[in-house]
Amino acid sequence: MKHIYTHDNIVVLHSVKNILALNDIESYVKNEQTVPVGAQHGIGNTFHELWILNDHDYIAATELIAREVENPSPKAAWVCGECSEENDGSFDVCWKCQSAPVETQATQGA
Ligand SMILES: [Zn+2]
Prior knowledge:
It is built from three helices and five strands. It folds into two domains: 2-70, Alpha-Beta Plaits, CATH 3.30.70; 75-104. The chain is an alpha+beta fold. Bound molecules: zinc ion.
């Protein structure tokens, strides 16, 4: 068994566990019953921990967490239909003229 991930929010930890499970990596939560606040007061080892059951899953699990949890892939950049300015994929509206991106739904189910 190997320790793979630590977080003070049990909900986050369970979503990571689910992501691993979807990729056939078995894991379990350690310290599930502890109170994370204790860690903020200098009491060690009270964060929730996620451990994988099979050591040979370690690299795959690490890569999965890095990709899906800590660094989700950015959305593609888009060009504003109004002013032709290029916008970062994280923007919901054009930074320059506040127009929403042109939807591409017209191509679906026609
Ligand atoms: Zn614009």
